[in-house]
Amino acid sequence: MQLSKAGSPASPNYTITPEASRTQVMDAISRVRSSLDGVLLGKSGQVQLALACLFARGHLLIEDLPGMGKTLLSQALARVLGLSYNRVQFTSDVLPSDIIGTSIFDRETGTLKFMRGPLFAQVVLADEINRATPKSQSALLEAMEERQVSVEGQPLELPEPFFVIATQNPVTQSGTFPLPESQLDRFLMRIALGYPDPDAERELLRGGDGRRKLADLEPQLDLNGLKQVQSAVDAVKVADPLIDYVQRLVGYTRQGGEFAYGLSPRGTLALLQAARAWALLQDRRHVVPEDVQAVLGPVVEHRLRESADFSGHGGGALVQKLLSNVDVV
Questions:
Q1: Looking at 213, 235, 257, which one is the last position of a domain?
Q2: Which of 66, 225, 278, 282 ranks highest by number of CB atoms within 10 Å?
Q3: Distance (Å, whole) CA 46 – CA 196
């Protein structure tokens, strides 16, 4: 089967056939990465992590200072994957109904009619999520875990696929509400974009602003193509010795000491699935220890706490201890 050129400007440049070969899938991934790298200059590593998160069917939390390109990354991901996109600006006065939707009285029918909120999109940007109160933050819990919301006791399915990309400002900034552990655990990964390197920043200053390039960004996958990539992630093999390594990492977090608590089974499964996605991005058919190590920080840092520090900012140091103290074989 060949990749077919799309005929509509709103369609992806190429669609992947249902019987897509490995080569076709990797070509599609390459096009997606190239498109994103052209918008987010000097952020190839972060782009790969974001793609690994979404290809693994996870949700992504981006934590950084304002103006680092968090929103730009979410918009670019939605565009290049050809998915519907809604943005919710979280503030202290946002209510759960502003996110999920609300029922209004329809005079013509004499009944209540549910008006769907911005949550009903394939990619939802929860911008500055930690500026909302815990009550509004919790409106995302059911949606992120079960891909549905409950309205007046009735479940409503969300679009397929359903990805939440949330951004948050550092908790040290004013007007923020720290995300509880139950909310953090719903995110497969947490990443930071960081300052651009000198070369990338120089290109920005010369007129390479990604926002200008965003309007010209074309979809590189359709829905079927995305499902093919996700199926390719599931097909990446994991050998028993690799599972042993993952179990040693997880077991180390559960020994107490500097770890306030260990990784949950959900966190363990998240680590392995993220490693599969990372391996696919490296064009490997099986997971190697380097794949686990590449995603270990983004997957587990926000799930770990130091016994002496419950602020949530010690996860990075704990990850380094895992990498240093747990043998690969």
A1: 235
A2: 278
A3: 12
Rg value, the chain, Cα: 20
Buried b (16+ CB within 10 A) or exposed e, 170-203: eeeeeebbebeeebebbbbbbbebeebeeeeeee
CA 134 to chain centroid: 21
Residue among 10, 4, 8, 45 nearest 28 (CA): 4
Residue type, 39: V
H helices of the chain, in order, are 22-39, 44-55, 70-80, 96-100, 134-137, 141-146, 181-184, 198-205, 210-214, 223-235, 240-253, 265-281, 289-300, 315-325
DSSP-derived pairing of the beta strands 189-191 and 60-63 = parallel
pLDDT tens string 91-103: 888 898 999 998 8
The domain spanning residue 306 has which CATH number? 1.10.8.80
Q: Which residues pair with 11 in a beta bridge?
A: none
Please say which residue of 235, 268, 283 terminates a domain: 235
pTM of the predicted model as reported, rounded to 2 decimal places: 0.88
Structure token digits, residue 308: 């002496």
DSSP 8-state symbol, 131: G
What is the rounded CA–CA span in Å between residue 227 and residue 219?
15
The domain tally of the chain equals 2
CATH of the domain at 132: 3.40.50.300
Please check whether residue 163 is in contact with residue 155, taking contact to mean a CB–CB distance below 8 angstroms: no
44/302 Cα distance (integer angstroms) = 22
- Tens of pLDDT, residues 286-297: 999 999 999 999
Residue 314 has pLDDT above 80, yes or no: no
Domain that holds residue 176: 4-235
The verdict on 248 and 168 lying in the same domain is: no
Check if the beta carbon of residue 143 is closer than 8 Å to that of residue 105. Answer: no
